[in-house]
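FORM 7B - TANDEM STRUCTURE REPORT

SECTION 1: FIRST PROTEIN
SEQUENCE AND TOKENS:
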Amino acid sequence: MDRIDFGRKYIHLKGPVKLRLDVRSMSVTAIFLAAVLALGLFSLMVGTLKLSIVEVFSAFSGELTGLKRTVVIDWRLPRVIAAIVFGAGLAISGAIFQSITRNPLGSPDILGFTSGSYTGALVVMLVIKSMSFTTIAFGSLIGGFATAIIIYLFAFRNGTQGFRLIIVGIAISTVLGSINSMLLLQSKAEVALTAGAWGVGSLNGIDWYHVLPGILLVLVLLILAVIMNRPLREMELGKDASKSHGVHFERTQFLLILIAVALTAVATAIMGPVTFVALAAPQIALRFTNTAESLAPTAAVGAFVLLSADVLAQRMIPGMILPVGVLTLSLGGLYLVWLLFHQARSTV
């Protein structure tokens, strides 16, 4: 017997700012945020130095001093916060690109923006021969934005169509992959090894000095993404329909691409290229909520995916801390195969 859909449940808030909140999306967001909180506390407690939850909260309140407080506040907390914020940023970036391209394969990993950031970092490390964290991060940002400009110029023709953007992005990504390999092969072994390790993507050794500027910038970009969410949904109706609703299509599309590229470039500059979070998180959130109306579930899922991957990477092999990018690449590859298989079956 077929079920009759009488519509989704919403909560309407009236006041200076009127809001319509989808109950299912709010529930999914709350569940994933609770999971992120629990996982974050677990990550602060376990490790070489095991702590109780009471000791963790004592470190927050300032009652706990010495080595234990340093471990919680200065060593573990930056890693947890970075995983949460950058995971949310990568997920929102993927959601924007998937909405613009109208394709679940639309993500900065597939479109080449992550490869561009890696190329920028490699140029700094292998050509300029600088191993400064600040210089590498700056090179990664420049590489990401330069790649975005190139892809946008090649894909733009009376507006940027989703399919053309994906094809051009894949082509540019392939070229950049070859350039990256050439740079690594022509460098000294020890320098190439360091650069290759950075290219896996990792949160190992991260601290407040390195991560705080990136976190603040990503939070600002997330706010901008939320502000642009309504025109993003209007654009999904098509160019003519969105223009009839007062949306300047080309300008809005350019701003959204700029926000999405910036989210990816900043996260990549701090962690290195962590792949497939941007690809998988929006689709996972969509399957749980059955709507892409809100970006909140996507951000919560992205935070959970990256944080859980990092926690697992730290404890998968006893005595060894794997880069989080190794795990996301492995699991993401399996997800990509499943997604392609699912897409092929749905078109038959």
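SECTION 2: SECOND PROTEIN
SEQUENCE AND TOKENS:
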Amino acid sequence: MINPTSPSISPSVLIVDDNQDIRELVSQLLEAEGYSASSAVDGEDMWQIMSKKKPDIILLDVMLPGTDGFELCRQLCADQNMPPVIMLTAKDEEIDRVVGLELGADDYIVKPFGRRELIARIKAVLRRVKSGHVQTGKGVYRFAGMSFKPSQMEIFDATGTSTPLSTSETQLLLTFVQNPRIPLSRDRLLDLTKGRNSTPFDRSIDSHVSRLRRKLGDDGKKPEIIKTSWGTGYLFTCDVETL
């Protein structure tokens, strides 16, 4: 089995779900694919497990006893040192998926899901995290009075005030600054940010662009930095200086 993140250590996945059957089934599926799986029944259990060892990725259910998955996602994604998060939800409403992505989740899966979809999404997120670390280096990109430091996963405004970025936001902005003034389709953005093995059911680009616009101070209704290229996708309009 090829390991997506390390040639010698199996990627570890933490499953946070109060349904015992789901925890056991997902654990079995992951272990059959060569992953190391652990599980938690709620947020308190999750933090206790993570205090001992952080996983490579978290599968986080929305409907949890006590603190719900949305709030846990917000807490996790506020710390750039936390692992990426895939939300698990039984709700098939678009607003629920959007909320998770807006809070910083890297992806979402609607229950019930199949084994192939689950593994594909986990691999895509782990691949994106890995490629982000490889490609970012120590470079600094300047545009529109801001500085972007991919290695730190932060952007800085003219006053030096920093805004943290999630893994997905960092990789997406890196793609834009490396391809300024070039219209990029949603499929192309998926290729560049998630790799050629991105799946056709992964349509989270729009939500990630929306969230990135806000962090850049770009008006979502009349964006000037990341413009919607009608019929194509998105266009990063700024001149970029690389240091």
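SECTION 3: OBSERVATIONS ON SECOND PROTEIN
Residues 115-136 form the longest helix (22 residues).
The chain has two domains: 12-133, 137-242.

SECTION 4: SIGNATURE
Preparer initials: ____
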